[in-house]
């Protein structure tokens, strides 16, 4: 019974790490796009803030779960 719980936890921890890497890449990509724009584009700023919020939420969840990123 305990082995299944550990297996599920490990599986979802791995999924969380993969998702964190994806959101970090998305966040960095939107930062680069925002830096390349000459004018003030509200939609790009909103996309960057959304990506940043998602990444930091997942980071907080990983810290609560005590997951080490390798």
TrEMBL record:
Protein name: YaaL family protein
Organism of origin: Viridibacillus soli
């Amino acid at each position: 019974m305990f082995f299944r719980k550990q297996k599920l936890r490990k599986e979802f921890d791995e999924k969380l790490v993969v998702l964190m890497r994806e959101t970090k890449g998305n966040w960095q990509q939107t930062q680069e796009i925002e830096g390349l724009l000459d004018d003030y584009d509200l939609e790009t700023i909103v996309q960057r803030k959304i990506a940043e919020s998602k990444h930091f939420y997942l980071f907080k969840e990983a810290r609560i779960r005590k997951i080490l990123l390798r």
